[in-house]
Structures are given as structure tokens and as C-alpha cells.
Amino acid sequence: MISLVIPIYNEEVLIDELINRTLKALKSFGNDFEIIIVDDGSSDNSIIKLLKHRKQDDRIKIVQLSRNYGHQAAYTAGLTVAKGKFVAMMDGDLQDPPELIEVMYKKLISNENTDIIYAKRKSRKEKMLRRFLMKMFHKIFSKITRGSSIENVGNFSIFRDYVKDAILIYSEKNRYLPGIRFHAGFSQDYILFDRDERIAGSTKMSISKLISLALDALFSFSNLPLRTMLFIGFVGLFISLVGVIYVILSKLMGVAPFGWSSTLFFIFFFSSLQIMFLGLLGEYIYRIYKEVQNRPLFIIKHFHE
Ligand code: UDP
Ligand code: MG
Questions:
Q1: DSSP states of the chain as a string?
Q2: pLDDT band, very low/low/confident/very high, at 204 (cuts 50, 70, 90)
Q3: Fewest CB atoms within 10 Å of the CB: 44, 99, 146, 273?
Q4: Protein residue whose Cα sits closest to atom 13 of ligand 1
């Protein structure tokens, strides 16, 4: 059986098309699938529409969260109830074409040794700024994780049940699932696809949500920011040693009292650098704090099984 997990947040305008198209795309599986839709605290009529579909087709299951937790948490909630031997993740706005699930599934079972098939984007249709930011993020992320295979890869994927169990062991609060799926190992392969435009409604991932997801990903999968800070600190130390020698020599040679501009320059430069580094440390402390608090990632209000 396949469990298809789809997170939804205020998507009432596209739910009918989403479900109809997905059911059609999964036709060849007969009754051997479940669609787990996670309502991530929608404040529109999404849940009413979902329950209507649920009534007509009991292969549709609905996980209703107690509030909006963000789509990484919503996916995770869906994974916890998935019962299939195979589990797939797909965005709910039809940017990920459901027809590809069968393609990915076939590729997955064609090799007994493959555990994960993910869909890699050949192209994406997003607004310019978003596309630029996403591209930058993927470039940096694949560099720091030394895994070029993760570039242009999102949540859209299918994997075996033990991969799902492994992903759920990762209890971190700052979650970035494509990174976790990659980190968990297993043998991975991919298909290529063109990412569609959202069919209706507007994106639920504001630029600020995107940036915070990108920071979660970077901070939780790399110590690069800390390393860079250490490196800059060393360079600064070297420069100041040269400066100190220069100051002492000037003193000895009796030409000391000058250099108002250079003094101010160094004060400005190094004090802003210090503040920046403190902010960077703050980012780590904030993330550590969130992990230590150990609050639940999500709370399920109701599972319409
Ligand atoms: N989503 C969610 N909770 C959120 C934000 C988004 O469940 O807080 C869902 C959303 O309904 C969609 C998927 O996650 O099905 C991807 O979101 P979106 O399409 O808005 O993001 P983008 O594709 O623009 O990155
Ligand atoms: Mg989208």
C-alpha cells in the first residue's frame, strides 16, 4: 500500500481539483493507497471541503492539527499516521504533479535495493525574487552538505516504510525534511521533472517563512557559519598584531599622535563585526533553546481515519 501525505493550509479554492486529480493519478493502484491530508490549522473552509471528500471516499484520511505549525511539521504529522509499505510526500497546490507518483513508484520497485526516489526539478515557475532566493539557497546548501544530489530537490518523493521510520527518529524542532531525508542515508535515486505553477490561490510560504526555513536548514546541517566566524576572527587577530607593531614603532619614533580616521575606522569595523557575530551566536542559542524546550512539533486535534 502507498500512503500519500499532503499538507494543506488555507487551500479551499484548490481542494476539489487536488483530490480529483490525485485520485485519477492513483487509479492504477486500485484500493491499495491512502491519501493523508494534513490540515495545518487552516482558517478558511478547507476542513469542511476535505471532510466532504472524506465522506465520499474512505481512502482519504484527514489529520487535523490544532493550529498552524508550518508545512515541515505538517508533513511530519502525516508521516506519523502513514501505514503504507511505501510513503510519498507531495505539496497540496499541484506544483508537484500527482501523475509522477506512479512513475516514481515504478522506479522505486524496479530496483529492490533502492529506498528513496525523489523528484528533482529541471525548471521551476516562480516569481523572480523567489526563484533567485531558492536558487541561492540550493547552491549554498548543496555546497555545505557536499551533496550535489540535493540541489533542486524538495519534499516531493516516495520511499519505503523503514525510511519513514528513520525520518521520524529525527526529533529536531528546526526541521528541514529534504535535508533529513538526505542525512538519513539509504540508497537514493531520482527522476527529473518540470515544476508547475500553483493552480490556484497564492503561496502560503511568505518570503520570511522561506528565509527562516533556509536558515533552519543551514544552521542544522552545517557549522559553516561558526567556522567562518572563527576564520574571520583569526584574520582580525593577525591584522591587529600588525597594527600593534605599527603603533609601537610610531611611538618609539616619536610620531605617535595621529590617525583619527584609522582609529575610528577600526572601531566602526570591529564593533559592527562583533555585533554581527553576537547575532550569529544568538541564532545558535535560539535554536538550542528551541530544542531544549522540547515542545511538541505539532498537536493532532483529530484524525479522521
Ligand atoms: N503549507 C502548510 N502549512 C504552512 C504553509 C504551507 O501546510 O504553514 C502547505 C501548503 O498548503 C502547500 C504546501 O505546504 O500545500 C507548500 O506550500 P506553498 O505552495 O505555499 O509553498 P511554495 O511552493 O510557494 O514554497
Ligand atoms: Mg507551492
A1: -EEEEEEESS-GGGHHHHHHHHHHHTGGGTT-EEEEEEE-S-SSSHHHHHHHHHHH-TTEEEEEESS---HHHHHHHHHHH--SSEEEE--TTSSS-THHHHHHHHHHHHSTT--EEEEEEEEE---HHHHHHHHHHHHHHHHHTT-GGGTTEEEEEEEEHHHHHHHHH---SS--HHHHHHHT-S-EEEEEEEEPPPSSS--SS-HHHHHHHHHHHHHHH--HHHHHHHHHHHHHHHHHHHHHHHHHHHHHTT--S--HHHHHHHHHHHHHHHHHHHHHHHHHHHHHHHHHHT--S--EEEEE-
A2: confident
A3: 146
A4: 91
Nearest ligand (C-alpha, residue 205): 1
pLDDT at 13: 93
pTM over 0.90: no
214 lines ligand 1 (CB under 6 A): no
Q: What distance in angstroms lies between residue 104's CA and the mean position of ligand 1's atoms?
A: 22
CA-92 nearest atom, ligand 1: 15
Give the atom of ligand 1 at the shortest distance from the alpha carbon of 68: 8
Cα of 152 vs centre of ligand 1, distance in Å, is 17
Distance CA 43, CA 290 (A): 26
* CA-10 nearest atom, ligand 1: 11
| Ligand 1 binding pocket includes 159 (Cβ within 6 Å) | no
